[in-house]
Amino acid sequence: xxxxxxxxxxxxxxxxxxxxxxxxxxxxxxxxxxxxxxxxxxxxxxxxxxxxxxxxxxxxxxxxxxxxxxxxxxxxxxxxxxxxxxxxxxxxxxxxxxxxxxxxxxxxxxxxxxxxxxxxxxxxxxxxxxx
Length: 131
Prior knowledge:
This protein is an alpha/beta fold.
């Protein structure tokens, strides 16, 4: 299977999901496509890291349903620090989700789980290229 070269990048991704297995798999996929990934299973730890080194990140991807701070809350907090950073929210709860309402709240992209690598990489590349 040949990798689509158009999906590759060298940018830095902040990836947060409270499921460690998802973090491990997604980090591995993104790194195979050339991205630098800094990942967390805690939204609070991710926010702390973002505050200390916000300039190194090019895009952020957050799970919606996380304990203590939702992905949407985390997105709002990092957008207060760096309004220009593209943020993608990922979720598996379709019955409660309205994609347009997330986009209206300042989220730049939305992924419904389970997410294919092509779908996530295409959205990442699209958002990075339109900056």
